Amino acid sequence: MGRACVRRGLKIGTQPNETILNKATIRWSLSKLAPVAETPSYWIYRVQREDNSRAALRIFKSPDGIGERAGRLLEWYRGDGAVRHYGSTPECLLTEWVEGTTLSVPAKDGKDAQAMSAIANLVGMLHVYRPDPPENLIDLREHFADFFAADVRFWPDTARDLFARSVGIAYSVFDKPHAQIPLHGNVYHDDVFLAERGWIAGIPVGLLGDPAYDLAPSFMHPWGEVKLAANPTRINAMADLYSEKLGLKRKRILAFAAIHAANSACKALAAGESINWQLAVLPNLLAVYDAAD
Questions:
Q1: For residue 43, what are the domain limits?
Q2: Same structural domain for residues 90 and 133?
Q3: Taking a C-beta distance cutoff of 8 angstroms, is the pair 58, 77 a contact?
C-alpha cells in the first residue's frame, strides 16, 4: 500500500529482524527495499518485484498467523474490492502497492454521502458469495473476547455506563443466531484506497461472523472528524444507506457500530492511550441505536 496505509502518521522507528527481511527478499525475489512506515503491528516496505512492479511488504511484529490469515483471505477476494495478494508467511505479507488517495479525502471534502455509498458498495463486493472460503478465520465472538473480559474500572467514572451498555448490546447481538460469512474487519475511510479498478480495502483482520460487522469501523471515521463521525444525523444516514443497499437490519448495524467503538476504547485504554475520540462518538452511536426500530 502507499502512504495512506499508515494511520495517524506513525513513522519508522525500530527495525524488523534482518533474518526475516532477508528471507522475504529471497523468497519473492525482491529488490529496492525502502522502509515506508511503522505501525503498532508491522513494518512496511516499498519493494520491487522480479517483473519490476512495485509491491508492499509488511513484516509483522508479533507473528501469530496474521500474515497467513490475511493472505488467504486476500487470495480468496482475488483483488475484487481488496488489495491484491502476492504472497504470505506467518511473519510477512506481500501485496500490491497502491498510491491512490484514501476515502477520507472525499468524506472531508463535502462528499461524505458519496463516501458512505462507496463503503456500502465495497462491503457488498467483499460479501459476494465465493466458494471455498479460508478455514483459518477468527470467529467474531472470539475476536471480542478481551472486550467481554475488560475491567470497567479502567474506564473514566463518567463513561462506565457507556461500557456497560455496549457490553449488554454485545451479549444481545451475539446470542441471536445469524449468518456467518468471511469478514474483512478493517473497512473504514482511512484504509480504503483508490486504485485503477476503483475503491479497494487494505489489509484484513480475517474474521468469520455477522456481515453487519464489516460496516462497524466506518462509523468512527474519518478519524478525528467530530463534525462527521459524532453527528447523530450522519450516523442515522449511514445506517439507513447501509441497510438499504445491503439488505441488513438497521438496528444490528448500529449495534455492531457501538460495540466496535467501545472495543476500540478498551484497546486504547489497555495501551495507555487516550479515548477522547471514542467518547466523542460512542454516546451518539448508543443514542441512535436506542432510538432505532
A1: 3-96
A2: no
A3: no
**Are 258 and 114 in a shared domain?**
yes
CA distance 77 to 241: 24
Note the pLDDT of residue 133: 95
Residue 36: in which H helix or E strand, if any?
strand 31-38
Q: Among residues 265, 282, 281, which one has the least CA distance to residue 273?
A: 265
In this structure, are 261 and 137 located in the same domain?
Answer: yes
pTM of the predicted model over 0.90: yes
Q: Which residue has the cell 508479533?
A: 62
The x, y and z cell numbers of residue 172, run together, are 444481545
Residue 109, domain CATH: 3.90.1200.10
Same domain, yes or no, for 248 and 177?
Answer: yes
Number of other CB atoms surrounding residue 31 within 10 Å: 10
pLDDT per 10-residue tile (average), the chain, 293 residues: 38 70 95 91 94 95 82 97 95 93 96 98 98 95 96 95 98 92 97 95 96 98 94 98 98 98 96 96 98 91
* Same domain (yes/no): 7, 72: yes
Pick the closest to residue 141 from 248, 259, 52, 34 (CA basis): 259
The C-alpha cell 505501525 sits at 39
C-alpha cell at 162: 457507556
Q: From 68, 69, 46, select the one nearest 57 (Cα to Cα).
A: 46
pLDDT given at position 22: 93
